[in-house]
Amino acid sequence: MNYIYTTLLSAVIIFTIGCTTDNKISIEAETKPQQSTTIMISDQQFESSGMLNGKLSKKHFDKTIIVNGKVSIPSKSKAIVSSIMSGTIGAIDLIEGQWINKNQALFTVTNIELIDLQEEYLILQSKMEYLREEEIRKQKLVAENLIPKQELLLSQSEYLANQAKHKTVAKKLKMYGVDTNNLSINKLNTSLTIYSPISGYVSNINALRGQFINPSTEVLTIENKSMIYLSLNVLERDALLIDKGQNITFSVTGSLTKYNATVHLISPKVSDKGMVTVHCKITDVKDLIPGMYATAEMTLESYETNALPESAVVQIEGENNILILTSELEAKSNYEPQVIEVGANKNGYLEIKNSDPWLDQTILVKGGYYLVN
Prior knowledge:
Layout lengths: L1 H30 L7 E4 H6 L3 E3 L2 E16 L5 E4 L5 E6 L6 E2 L4 E6 L1 H32 L5 H27 L15 E5 L4 E4 L8 E2 L6 E4 L5 E7 H4 L7 E6 L6 E12 L4 E8 L10 E17 L4 E3 L2 E11 L2 E8 L2 E5 L2 E4 L10 E4 L2 H4 L1
Antiparallel strand pairs: 1-19, 2-22, 3-12, 3-16, 4-11, 5-7, 5-10, 6-9, 7-8, 9-11, 12-15, 13-14, 13-16, 14-15, 16-21, 17-18, 18-19, 20-21
Helix pairs in contact: 3-4
């Protein structure tokens, strides 16, 4: 009996000791302090640092895209200058970048063919007068039955053939810039003068004095950059949201200057790569040169959403956070950081994408940077 009592007593003591040990472990685990993220700000610190509380507010933002393009020039403002006659270049006193007015002389081309053509014109003109007189004389003779009518018809045929050839040569000379009204044997043009078809700047000079050229030779180019425009490549889905007359801003490679332009024409054709060409009229073409590559910012649509000032968003361990007011005590306030997702930026305000949990919360909108840095 004593043996049973001793055994039970030992078991009770062991059980009691075991329970006591478990309870101690449990209490220690529950009372172990955790790292707090709460930021405490005294009222004095709040005022002296110029801090400010606020709430989420509705702001307008724009959905924008960045597209690439090129400064271009329309075909009507660009002219490739060549000679309609083969020959040797004579006087050419031009430099690239020089301004040229429409109908201003550019260079001359010399070719013996031009002299031969003028000689042929004068011969045909004098012969035409003789043939006309001969036709009139034979008309009288036929009327008097002195010659057969066939001779009159032959004279008329020679006159008409000479007249046709005379007009053909005259048109050729006109194309070469020769005034046939003032042409005489003592006043022949020895060279063809090439004039500028448009006003603009000289570029791409490809010939020198004394060089022989053909009609296919591109001697130089004239470009009028006052009509240059911006050509942009836009994705098909984005092009549907662009409107004619829409304002855009752009910059060219190597420059920080911002230029303004207006959408002038949206191409109805989609390329094999799913791109649509958008042509824009540039407001101020100063300092821009055709061929420059450009990057433009285009607004597709506007929307309203919840936003906070930029100063309300602070960086904590590489993440965007806002500081939410959790409690106000005597002479101090507590703030709790909350990770947020930001969107567009406009006029000093940031779009807050996951704003629903904090719609009615008080937020530190100014001064938070100095608390976490």
